[in-house]
């Protein structure tokens, strides 16, 4: 649950920063900032990782870096209250499916929750124009769907690391995410510039995201993958709340219903 709170706050900070600064710069610098802080505190949490832990960590980090890049872009062009739940539902679906394939039993409540989550994707994607007509919102939705798949991969790959590794898998994960983002910047010849006023948001996003990563990894070592991933996917609640308080972002009635369905679906899926 705490991982969800930190992820939601990180997404809000990163998404807000990308509305004024270059998306790739915000993503890369926030990931790097979180990495630096992690390396400083890492000696306090020693682990004993093997080669496979670093491999799966790196694969997860590559997925995570791309997922965050897509998510921040989606948050910058679409409504946070729409984009965030879509990404969360898709991100939870992949590890949930793998967890079931591993033999994790799906209860009746979880089946209902998954159905609600799928319905929510449609509801929260419907926007109401000023003239009163309704249409499917496209701004940020495509990117949110792709981001959900990538973040789901991040959740999944990190779950294959050993508990003895503790948080050492995150070293490879964050190095991979920073590396792939830097490679994208070099290939696209993007200018990595951020407004000075956005640096607190960028650093905050990186620190919050890194903390959430650590909490998620520890959660996977102490329970089912499906439960950890789905509970972590409750993060839209804090993103939507912050968007409402800080940005006064309003949703239509049907979108509010969609958000409720999404959050209710995640809660039901977490029940055993």
Strand content: under 5%
Query: Structural class, judged by helices and strands?
Result: mainly alpha
**Helix proportion:** over 70%
The tally of structural domains comes to 1
The end-to-end span amounts to: 16 Å
Helix segment count? Answer: 11
Q: Which word captures the global form? A: globular
What letter string, H or E per element, gives the SSE order?
HHHHHEEHHHHHH
Please count the beta strands (DSSP E, at least 2 residues each). Answer: 2
The oligomeric state is: single chain
Largest sheet: 2 strands, antiparallel
Strand order of the largest sheet: 1-2
Low-confidence stretches: none
Mean of all residue-level pLDDT scores: 82
> Using only CA atoms, what is the Rg?
18 Å
What does this structure look like?
There is one protein chain. By secondary structure, this protein is mainly α. The protein has one domain. The chain has 11 helices and 2 strands; from the N terminus they run αααααββαααααα. The protein has helices spanning 2-17, 23-41, 51-77, 80-101, 108-123, 141-159, 169-188, 199-220, 225-232, 236-247, 253-269, and strands at residues 126-128, 134-136. A two-stranded antiparallel sheet has the order 1-2. A hairpin with a 5-residue loop joins strand 1 (126-128) and strand 2 (134-136). It starts with a helix and ends with a helix.
């Amino acid at each position: 649950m705490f991982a969800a709170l930190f992820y939601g706050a990180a997404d809000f900070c990163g998404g807000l920063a990308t509305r004024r600064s270059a998306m790739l710069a915000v993503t890369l610098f926030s990931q790097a900032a979180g990495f630096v802080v992690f390396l400083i505190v890492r000696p306090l949490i020693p682990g004993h990782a093997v080669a496979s832990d670093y491999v799966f960590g790196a694969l997860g980090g590559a997925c995570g870096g791309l997922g965050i890049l897509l998510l921040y872009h989606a948050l910058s062009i679409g409504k946070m209250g729409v984009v965030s739940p879509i990404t969360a539902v898709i991100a939870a679906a992949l590890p949930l499916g793998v967890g079931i394939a591993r033999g994790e039993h799906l209860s009746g409540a979880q089946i209902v929750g998954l159905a609600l989550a799928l319905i929510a994707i449609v509801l929260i994607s419907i926007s109401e124009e000023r003239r009163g007509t309704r249409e499917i919102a496209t701004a940020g939705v495509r990117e949110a769907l792709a981001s959900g798949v990538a973040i789901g991969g991040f959740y999944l790959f990190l779950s294959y690391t050993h508990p003895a590794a503790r948080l050492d898998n995150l070293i490879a994960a964050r190095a991979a995410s920073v590396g792939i983002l830097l490679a994208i910047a070099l290939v696209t010849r993007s200018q990595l510039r951020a407004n000075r006023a956005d640096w607190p948001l960028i650093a905050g996003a990186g620190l919050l995201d890194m903390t959430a990563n650590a909490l998620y990894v520890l959660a996977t070592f102490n329970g089912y993958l499906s439960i950890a991933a789905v509970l972590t996917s409750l993060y839209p609640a804090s993103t939507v709340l912050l968007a409402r308080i800080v940005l006064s972002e309003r949703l239509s009635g049907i979108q509010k219903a969609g958000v409720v369905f999404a959050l209710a679906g995640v809660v039901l899926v977490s029940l055993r």
